[in-house]
Amino acid sequence: MTSLRVNLLKWLIAPLLIINLLGAALTYWLAWTPAQTAFDQSLADTGWAIVPRLSEVNGEIKINLPQKEEQILRIDHFNIVYFVVRNSAGEILAGDPDFPVLPFPAKVDTPETYDASMRGEPIRIIGLTHAIGNKNVFIGVAETLRKRNNIRSVIVLSLLLLEGLLTAVTVGIVWFAITRGLFPLKKMQTDLSLRKRDDLSPMPIEQVALELHPLVSAMNNLLHKAEVGAINQQNFLANVAHQLRTPLAGLKLQIEWLAQRHQADADTTYSTDLMLSSTNRMIRQTNQLLALARAEPSNFIKTRLEPLSLDKLVEESIQHFIQESDKKQIDLGFDLSHTVVMGDRFLMRDLIDNLIDNAIRYSPEFGRVTVSCVQRDGFGVLSVEDSGPGIAASERELIFNRFYRLNDKVTGSGLGLAIVRDIATDHNATIVLNNGEGGLGTVFKVQIPKA
């Protein structure tokens, strides 16, 4: 997918780089043109220095240029300087005989520039036409381009360094500005990531940038729809589970009556046992669906919390689980101390039932399950230890997901621990998993704030 950051960088940095390049070209032209003009003016001054040495004698043009003065004209620490003086017939009066032959400038006393080559090296020439009496004289002064090329290299190198620095600063500023500009989106992402899975409350639109208001409004609208859908789903789940409990209970009674009526018939007894087992599973799953709907954190009302005796709630469940554990010859033990917590009676019963039922289901025959509760450090701690296969560290978070099961061979819906997690969330309780004694089995500890 296309990155918003990349698109912003592309549409901001590319035009800025083009503008920088155009600015560099203009800066080069503004720096080099005056330098070139200054060099040309220096050559023209050399040509003008020759003019006073020209005179007309008996109708002929003569030049009085002693050798020392000629040497002075040619002095330059970087370039080689050439010059020539020609009469109107093109005859050389002074200077270098191999000086390039150029046309006389059309205007008198108006220097013109030429580019040429002399002795295998490019040169820059200033040509000047000067009138002596009624005769014209051509004065040409040239120099090699060493000094000009050196100055040009300095200008280009300085511009490259300057443009490189400006480009780096520009890219840095744009990157920083885009990062700061995208920060509200990053913050929104972080806020959504930190939300609990059941938190469908609207996002505060007043705390986001004005440009993000349409996006936040659309997300809030979506969250509202999801919240309504979740509530409707939970209500439907609770209603269906509630409506199923009564007919299932009646069906169970009829099957039990039928089993007693025909207990002498082996085939009928076998069939009624199967029907009763299936009915019990259906009743358990219906009860779990109802517990799941009741425990949903988004539906929980904190005012339902009241002081509860945790040990008494466990005692109320003992008889049922003794019967279940006897079927697998499991040693079910209880170590209960008086423990008072703040809780919802129905939900705490569901939590206790699911933890103990889960321990019995996953413990092997002739295994051991120990249930205890104790008051400790401001918490009521409910502990359920089994002698089952244990839970790998990589799966200790997954087991609380709905319909996740560790072993498909063990009967169950995969909702028990999901219900336990939701109830713990409702009560601001924490669940801690540890290995059992000797590294065998699993210990579930639920720490519930005390009354």
UniProtKB/TrEMBL annotation:
PROSITE patterns: HIS_KIN (PS50109)
Pfam families named in the record: 2CSK_N, HATPase_c, HisKA
EC number: 2.7.13.3
Annotated Gene3D superfamilies: 1.10.287.130, Histidine kinase-like ATPase, C-terminal domain
Membrane-traversing stretches: 12-31, 154-178
InterPro entries xrefs: 2CSK_N, HATPase_C_sf, HATPase_dom, His_kinase_dom, HisK_dim/P_dom, HisK_dim/P_sf, Sig_transdc_His_kin-like_C, TCS_sensor_his_kinase
Gene Ontology terms, MF aspect: phosphorelay sensor kinase activity
Class of enzymatic activity (EC top level): transferase
Localization in the cell: Membrane
Keyword Phosphoprotein in annotation: yes
Annotated protein name in UniProt: histidine kinase
Organism: Sapientia aquatica
Lineage of the species this protein comes from: Bacteria, Pseudomonadati, Pseudomonadota, Betaproteobacteria, Burkholderiales
